[in-house]
Amino acid sequence: MESFFEWLQGLSISNWIATDESIWSFPTILFFHSVGMGLTAGVMFMICLRLVGVGRPLPVSSMRMLFRIFWWGFVMNAITNALGTEKIDMPATPSAIWAAIERLNKTRKAAE
């Protein structure tokens, strides 16, 4: 998994997000992430309402095309999340998260 994130950080779009001084790089990623979340949550909400019983004349099988929209939104979220974590300096791998926790513990112990 770490090799995937290293590859992702090497992309030119990752460098643009991390180093660009303009105001538009990170908000653009955030916008697409919000659109992906809206697609994912909206489609699942519609399917769940139908399964609960809202819109009984509509067969559940006719909602299959909504799953394609759901997966597009999910993929959009996965990509924008991976791209956006570099800008706000969040660790993206389990080993990086563990290293950050260890650094925080050492800093806390040194302050005591």
Number of strands: 0
Helical residues, percent: over 70%
Order of helices and strands: HHHHH
Radius of gyration: 20 Å
- The average pLDDT is 82
Shape: elongated
Query: Helical stretch count?
Result: 5
Give the count of structural domains. 1
Q: What is the rounded distance between the termini? A: 36 Å
Structural class: mainly alpha
Largest sheet: none
Strand percentage lies at: under 5%
Residue stretches low in confidence (pLDDT < 50, at least 5 long) are none
Write a structural description.
By secondary structure, the chain is an all-alpha fold. The protein has one domain. The protein has helices at 2-10, 12-19, 25-52, 64-87, 94-111. α2 (12-19) crosses α4. The two termini are 36 Å apart.
Quick summary:
By secondary structure, the chain is mostly helical. 78% of the residues lie in helices and 0% in strands.
Q: What tags apply to this protein structure?
A:
0% strand; 112 residues; mainly alpha; 5 helices
Topology:
Blueprint: H1 2-10, H2 12-19, H3 25-52, H4 64-87, H5 94-111
Helix pairs in contact: 2-4, 3-4
